[in-house]
Amino acid sequence: MAFTMHMKASGSSLRASSSATRSRKALSIRAAYIQKAEYVWSDGQEGQPIKGMKFNELRSKTKTLETDHGLDPSAYPDWSFDGSSTGQAEGSNSDCILKPVRVVIDPIRGAPHVLVMCEVYTADGNPHPTNTRAKLREVIDDKVKAAVPWFGLEQEYTMMSKTTGKVFGWPEGGYPAPQGPFYCGIGAESAFGRPLAEAHLEACMKAGLNISGINSEVLPGQWEYQIGPVGPLELGDEVHLSRWLLHRLGEDFGIVATFHPKPVKGDWNGTGAHTNYSTLEMRSPGGMDAILAAVDRLSKCHPEHISQYGVGNEERLTGKHETCDINTFRHGVADRGSSIRIPLPVMLKGYGYLEDRRPAANVDPYVVARLLIKNTLK
Ligand code: ADP
Ligand code: MN
Ligand code: MN
Ligand code: MN
Ligand code: MN
């Protein structure tokens, strides 16, 4: 009897709440939001230096939605933002448009919440001048598609303490031991900031990004993760989303991840974004001829690449610290002082891929992919 009473009571309260929902709807007040969509875009500024750190160029804001829109970007509505606050428009005509292009699970909020990578458009419906993804789309014609280009980007970054503004884990008012034991190092004296690097790896995997690994780097407090191999648009989308996750998780750890090409002056490694690149031909037996042909073409447009491979890259490409001097183009097998390296296993096999070692960590991945495609396949 008591049980029946209870059923009746809860049944009537359900009816009451659904009629309340109806009356809210009648008043045009939406009732239940179940999905958070974080719209992410680039402001195209490559970051402004401040106190040795660099602001990253990513921006984002949250939209709540009444239904689960899934992972198809076309299911998500366009949105707008105030371009005058991001350096992308004048105050008098400030609306910019966000067009969703890639959706992944938000690993921090969890499903059904998502991250939505967007392209930026102007109010008149054209790609915004900062929209480098649109410029990449333009070079991807049938010939490029048939070549099946793949990219793998090694994203290095340096962890800075939010409180001290110094590299995370470095002794107060001093320096750690000289470089040597830190690359792929293990132990509290060698690896600074691993909890963030681990949390970031986990987040990228949960989001379904093609993250292929992580390692600690030569400069203590510097780390790397790799995205790839993936196609050109996927590369840019996933590098941006993975950078967003790194910055977002850094908020929780009190760590600012900087992509500054030379975060510490002097005898310390800079921070790069080696980009590994191949076509179907390069990846097939006998592909070394295609790799060398691509290297030859790239040798003829070195300045064009250098001018777009990251602000401040001249501080990093000095000819020291595993780099080639910025004004020199050199390629070599297993040579970490070259502009383009052909990995030893690739040489031994006779096919595979090449590694462009020139891009700085703050490079725009859509730009690297466009330049490599344009200058090797067109
Ligand atoms: P390194 O030896 O320079 O540190 P990593 O192992 O860090 O190289 O990174 C190599 C990257 O190259 C990875 O992201 C990997 O996915 C990518 N890669 C592997 N094979 C190819 C290929 N055929 N084309 C493009 N990228 C590739
Ligand atoms: Mn406002
Ligand atoms: Mn690497
Ligand atoms: Mn590295
Ligand atoms: Mn490398």
From TrEMBL:
Q: Where is the composition biased (Polar residues)?
A: 82-92
Q: Name one GO cellular component term.
A: cytoplasm
InterPro entries given in the database record: Gln_synt_N (IPR008147), Gln_synt_N_sf (IPR036651), Gln_synth/guanido_kin_cat_dom (IPR014746), Gln_synth_cat_dom (IPR008146), Gln_synth_gly_rich_site (IPR027303), Gln_synth_N_conserv_site (IPR027302), Glutamine_Synthetase (IPR050292)
MF GO annotations: ATP binding; glutamine synthetase activity
Every copy of the GS catalytic domain together lies at 132-378
Q: Which domain of life is it from?
A: Eukaryota
As recorded in UniProt, its EC number(s) are 6.3.1.2
Catalysed reactions listed for this entry: L-glutamate + NH4(+) + ATP = L-glutamine + ADP + phosphate + H(+)
Residue ranges constituting the GS beta-grasp domain according to the UniProt record: 35-125
Whether Nucleotide-binding counts among this entry's keywords is yes
* Region Disordered: start-end pairs: 66-92
**Record-level GO BP terms:** glutamine biosynthetic process
Record keywords, A-Z: ATP-binding, Ligase, Nucleotide-binding
Task: Give the enzyme's main class according to its UniProt record, as a single word.
Answer: ligase
User: Which SMART domains does the record match to this protein?
Assistant: Gln-synt_C
Would I find ATP-binding among this entry's keywords?
Answer: yes
The family classification in the record reads: Belongs to the glutamine synthetase family.
PANTHER family on file: GLUTAMINE SYNTHETASE, GLUTAMINE SYNTHETASE 2 CYTOPLASMIC
Q: What is this protein called?
A: Glutamine synthetase
Q: Which organism is it from?
A: Chlamydomonas eustigma
